[in-house]
């Protein structure tokens, strides 16, 4: 689980990085009118095995140590770089995704690519496999460090604690009509679940169920207590509210049924989708209500290895 | 396609989350009913709406949405902006209608379900 999550993160990172993020900007270049003897010194001094050939900031070719060896093995005493270089070389654009650049390395087996600005087509950098690895490691380190430590600690709670039964309870107090804090509990809970290392699709199902339940309380009830019981194999959300209650629970489970006043509808709530949405996300649901007293909603979602993938199998009790 | 590319191509306004433009977006959803969005919007998608009150931010967080796009020149309320910055939610804006924006997004390859 933890390992798969890491790989997904690495993939995400790959799709976020662009050539410009990892390329080297202070490119060593040579001119076409310089000699191969000069090239030999430049490659040696900078410990590089190839370099772009530029006229001004215009890329005109690439020259590598292989070209130098071929020249040294020839009878020529001296030659110009311009005559020995590969003209019109393959290049990358600085705004290209790094994944695409990696594919280009793979396809051509070149060791380095000059990087051009996509608009001006001027030479702005160079990319090597080494720079890609370096850039990836740097980005990974930045992205993972803090959150990883938190997640690591949280997701190991169940493994690290020794007991016959292991459960974590997280509880939130909800206040009716408090639109300033509405959704806050669900937002915090979503972050907690992530830190606990819960599978992302399960997090999203729980997020939907808890947000709908929280909003029902904020919209219709005076107050409520939302409690999450997190166990190794399941998460149970229980919301008890004090309020008007639901007159017809079975009707409320049907899409489109809503007792919402106009102002609630204007905010985009009260479409009669709240409880149906919760049912869609839950593996088990229990809804009890007493008019004039309040409503208790229990939502159970399985989190073990065999847990539902989509959530569309979740139905009534 | 990244948010940055979408913003540039459709000349969208960035109300919040300018630093989170490198997210890749593939799908979108259009609705002003929050429960509809919560229930049916694709995870990580783009949400087109007229709703500009603070509760849209929590909806975006719940569905891990890439961005909210307010249409017809609507501007997020002050506390919506604050919540968006706090929860790292991107809010964009356009003077286009919801329909026009959806059509343009579709042309860019952003699909619906």
TrEMBL record, chain A:
Name of this chain's protein: CBS domain-containing protein
SUPFAM superfamilies: ATPase domain of HSP90 chaperone/DNA topoisomerase II/histidine kinase (SSF55874), CBS-domain pair (SSF54631)
UniProt keyword list: CBS domain, Repeat
Organism: Eiseniibacteriota bacterium
Domain of life: Bacteria
Pfam families attached to this UniProt entry: CBS (PF00571), HATPase_c_2 (PF13581)
CBS domain mapped to chain residues: 23-78, 85-142
Classification via SMART domains: CBS
Automatic annotation (TrEMBL), chain B:
Single GO MF annotation: kinase activity
Domain of life: Bacteria
Keyword Transferase included in the entry's annotation: yes
Keyword annotations from UniProtKB, A to Z: Kinase, Transferase
Name of this chain's protein: Serine kinase
């Amino acid at each position: 689980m933890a390992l798969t999550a890491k790989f997904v993160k690495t993939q995400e990172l790959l799709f976020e990085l662009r050539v410009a993020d990892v390329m080297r900007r202070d490119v060593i270049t040579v001119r076409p009118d310089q000699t191969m003897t000069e090239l030999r010194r430049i490659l040696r001094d900078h410990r590089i095995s190839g370099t772009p050939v530029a006229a001004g900031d215009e890329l005109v070719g690439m020259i590598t140590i292989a070209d130098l060896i071929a020249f040294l093995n020839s009878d020529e005493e001296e030659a110009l770089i311009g005559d020995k270089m590969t003209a019109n070389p393959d290049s990358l654009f600085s705004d290209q995704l790094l994944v695409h650049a990696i594919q280009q390395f793979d396809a051509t087996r070149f060791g380095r690519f000059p990087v051009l600005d996509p608009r001006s087509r001027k030479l702005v950098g160079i990319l090597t496999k080494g720079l890609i690895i370096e850039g990836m490691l740097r980005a990974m380190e930045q992205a993972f460090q803090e959150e990883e430590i938190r997640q690591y600690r949280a997701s190991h709670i169940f493994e690290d604690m020794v007991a016959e039964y292991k459960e974590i309870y997280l509880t939130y107090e909800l206040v009716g009509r408090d639109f300033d804090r509405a959704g806050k509990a669900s937002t915090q809970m979503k972050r907690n679940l992530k830190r606990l290392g819960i599978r992302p699709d399960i997090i999203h199902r729980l997020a939907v169920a808890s947000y709908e339940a929280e909003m029902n309380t904020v919209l219709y009830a005076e107050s409520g207590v939302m409690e999450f019981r997190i166990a190794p194999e399941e998460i149970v959300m229980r919301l008890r509210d004090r309020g008007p209650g639901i007159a017809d629970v079975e009707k409320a489970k049907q899409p489109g049924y809503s007792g919402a006043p106009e102002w609630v509808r204007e905010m985009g709530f009260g479409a009669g989708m709240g409880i149906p949405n919760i049912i869609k996300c839950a593996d088990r649901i229990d809804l009890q209500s007493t008019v004039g007293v309040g409503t208790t909603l229990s939502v159970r979602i399985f989190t073990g290895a065999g847990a539902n993938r989509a959530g569309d199998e979740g139905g009534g009790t | 396609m990244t948010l940055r590319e979408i913003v540039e191509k459709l000349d969208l306004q960035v109300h919040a989350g300018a630093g989170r433009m490198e997210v890749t977006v593939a799908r979108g959803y259009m609705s002003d009913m929050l429960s509809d969005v919560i229930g049916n919007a694709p995870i990580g998608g783009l949400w087109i709406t007229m709703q500009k009150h603070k509760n849209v931010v929590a909806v975006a967080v719940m569905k891990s949405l890439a961005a909210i796009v307010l249409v017809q020149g609507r501007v997020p309320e002050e506390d919506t902006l604050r919540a968006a910055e706090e929860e790292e939610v991107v809010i964009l804006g356009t003077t286009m209608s919801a329909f026009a924006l959806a059509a343009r997004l579709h042309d860019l390859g952003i699909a619906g379900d």
